[in-house]
Specification:
The structure is a single chain. The longest helix has 17 residues. The chain is globular, with a radius of gyration of 14 Å. 52% of the residues lie in helices and 9% in strands. Helix 1 packs parallel to helix 2. The chain has a single domain, classed as NAD(P)-binding Rossmann-like Domain (Rossmann fold, 3-Layer(aba) Sandwich), CATH 3.40.50.720. It is built from four helices and two strands. Strand 1, helix 2 and strand 2 form a beta-alpha-beta unit. With 112 residues, the protein is mainly α.
Length: 112
């Protein structure tokens, strides 16, 4: 939804292979289908990612590095605000993990 979906739509319109990294399988797949229909680009893919979980970030990065020949653009757009204080299973404050630690780790894991 929002900015991330708009960016993915624009990249797909430019005929780019576009990976949507989403927490929700259901919402992510709906976005993929909508973008494919709007652009005619079949190379729009869904991969599950929860940036609040460093294990999820590591698994996502390993899969991208294994499955993709190259990565030209990374858009770190995940974020949340205004939720009650919570600790992730890894012992991190949820907002900090989602907005900062997860994207930082992802970027570093995907760098050449």
């Amino acid at each position: 939804a929002g900015i991330g979906k708009c960016v993915a739509l624009d990249l797909a319109r430019r005929n780019a292979r576009t990976i949507l990294a989403c927490r929700s399988q259901e919402r992510g797949q709906a976005a993929v289908e909508e973008i494919r229909a709007a652009t005619g680009n079949p190379a729009v893919l869904l991969r599950l990612l929860d940036t609040s979980s460093l294990a999820s970030v590591r698994a996502f990065a390993q899969a991208v590095l294994r499955e993709e020949k190259r990565l030209d653009v990374l858009v770190n757009n995940a974020g949340l605000t205004g939720l009650p204080f919570a600790i992730t299973p890894e012992g991190l404050e949820r907002t900090f993990a989602t907005n900062y630690l997860g994207p930082f780790l992802l970027t570093n894991l995907l760098l050449g």
